[in-house]
Automatic annotation (TrEMBL):
It comes from the Eukaryota. Residues 1-21 form the signal peptide. The keyword Signal applies. GO terms for biological process: regulation of synaptic transmission, cholinergic; sleep. The keyword Ion transport does not apply. CDD domains: TFP_LU_ECD_Crim. Keywords: Glycoprotein, Membrane, Signal, Transmembrane, Transmembrane helix. Coiled coil: none annotated. It comes from Scylla paramamosain (Mud crab). The chain crosses the membrane at residues 136-157. This is Protein sleepless.
Length: 158
């Protein structure tokens, strides 16, 4: 390789990155097309989950006929949910019981569910093998990088 090719390669090499990605849907059943049985993928683009050990989660909270469904990445739910089951393999599991939640509070507003007792049935469904739950290792090349490489090629050999 000549000197110009080496310089061009050194300039653009940091722009190429390897990405291990997991893509999940993110929505709540109060949004149209995000129900338990009527999910419409055309409304929701999949989002990139950044954590390396991530899973896609479908959280189903039920009280009688009232059903609330939340679809998201596991890393987004871990910050505010303490009832995530320890077994996070593919499949559905009931929520973990947390005996200490709301132990030392005495709320005067009864509408705030500090002890998470409103929903009688909470189920976590984990997936990382299905469509839009799949993981992949791909090299990501941006459109900017591609355009710069074309311009550099034309400038050097053009």
């Amino acid at each position: 390789m000549n000197m110009k090719t080496q310089v061009v390669a050194l300039v653009f090499a940091p722009l190429i990155s390897l990405v291990s990605s997991l893509w999940c849907y993110q929505c709540v059943s109060s949004h149209p097309g995000c129900g338990l049985y009527d999910f419409d993928w055309r409304y929701y683009w999949s989002h990139y989950c950044h954590d390396a050990n991530n899973k896609c989660v479908k959280l189903i909270e039920q009280r009688g006929a009232d059903i609330k469904v939340t679809r998201d990445c596991l890393s987004n739910l871990e910050g505010h949910r303490r009832d995530i089951p320890a077994d996070r393999y593919e499949g559905c599991r009931p929520a973990a019981k947390d005996p200490l939640i709301g132990q030392y509070i005495f709320p005067s507003i009864t509408e705030i569910d500090h002890k998470r007792e409103y929903y009688t049935n909470v189920t976590f469904c984990f997936c990382d093998f299905d469509e839009r739950c799949n993981s992949a290792s791909v090299s990501v090349v941006s459109a900017f990088l591609s355009a710069c490489l074309v311009v550099a090629h034309l400038a050097v050999w053009g």
